[in-house]
Amino acid sequence: MPYRDKLIEEIRDAAARLLAEDLGPGDITAQLIPGDASARARVITREACVLCGVAWVDELFRRLDVTVTLNWSAADGDRLEAGQTFLELEGSARSLLTGERAALNLLQTLSATATRTRHYVDLIHDTGVRLLDTRKTLPGMRLAQKYAVTCGGGHNHRIGLWDAFLIKENHIAACGGIEAAVREARNIARDLPVEVEVENFTELDQALAAGADIVMLDNFGLDDMREAVKRTAGRATLEASGNVEEATLRAIAETGVDCISSGTLTKDIKAIDLSMRIIQ
């Protein structure tokens, strides 16, 4: 994972932000509980899912109260069944309740991303096609959701605007054509991959002639994808994009493209239903 160091930093920053956002000057409701009261709690999932977010929750409670102990019975990437307990906590009752919502918000969002990804990966598992995410992530959660995609068995496309070239329609127009855009990309950074988005066969041929590493087939029909695979003949990695959903995913994979990118993995998610309960 090339962004591991950045991810570690993001985990720390995210925990601090979430606590500041929720806690503010102090948890006034938790003050109803005696300060020396201890408690145990368990976290369960009410639906089947793929777990993601362990390190974030560990860091959150470390910052909130280092004496709280967390005992995980599952790890990131594990499949959980509905009703399964996957975390037990013990420590100050005030601390457990203060950290509850921030911890669950993280877990339910990242687990939703991992779960959606795993479902899509399972649909095409025998095709050899790689499922990619996009930059269509929730604001402020780019690295976290990219990590969650990998927990679900998917792969990361570029992390941001800095680690790969993606030459789209407006870039092509501003540069004066595909060949000129690819040539300039090589001049700027020869070690970075160059991807060109194309909308028709003429642009595909131009991208291949220019030596693009990756060609994104933007909203190609299935027959056109199959033709693009024949024309490309392994000269570049072919990525299918557009109109990717559960109903179309398998058919797209069977055209012979190398990978499929989909923003739905990160932007169209529904939070996993999780619950924390104090154990009496």
Written description of the protein model:
- The chain has 280 residues and is α/β, with parallel strands linked by helices.
- The protein has ten helices and twelve strands.
- The protein has helices spanning 4-23, 54-64, 93-123, 142-151, 169-175, 178-188, 201-210, 222-232, 246-253, 264-267; strands spanning 38-45, 49-50, 69-72, 79-80, 85-92, 130-132, 165-167, 194-198, 214-218, 237-241, 259-261, 274-279.
- A six-stranded parallel β-sheet has the order 6-11-10-9-8-7.
- β10 (237-241), α9 (246-253) and β11 (259-261) form a beta-alpha-beta unit.
- α2 (54-64) packs antiparallel against α3 and α7 runs parallel beside α8.
- The protein is elongated, with a radius of gyration of 23 Å.
- The two termini are 42 Å apart.
Query: Beta-strand percentage?
Result: 15-25%
Ends apart, CA distance between termini: 42 Å
The count of helical stretches stands at: 10
Largest sheet, order of strands side by side? 6-11-10-9-8-7
Radius of gyration: 23 Å
Count every beta strand, where a strand is a DSSP E run of 2 or more residues: 12
Backbone structural class:
alpha/beta
Give unreliable regions as ranges. Answer: none
Q: What is the helix fraction of residues, given as a range?
A: 40-55%
Summary, kept brief:
The chain is of the alpha/beta class and 280 residues long.
Question: Which helices and strands occur, and which strands form pairs?
Answer:
Elements: H1 4-23, E1 38-45, E2 49-50, H2 54-64, E3 69-72, E4 79-80, E5 85-92, H3 93-123, E6 130-132, H4 142-151, E7 165-167, H5 169-175, H6 178-188, E8 194-198, H7 201-210, E9 214-218, H8 222-232, E10 237-241, H9 246-253, E11 259-261, H10 264-267, E12 274-279
Parallel strand pairs: 6-11, 7-8, 8-9, 9-10, 10-11
Antiparallel strand pairs: 1-5, 1-12, 2-4, 3-5
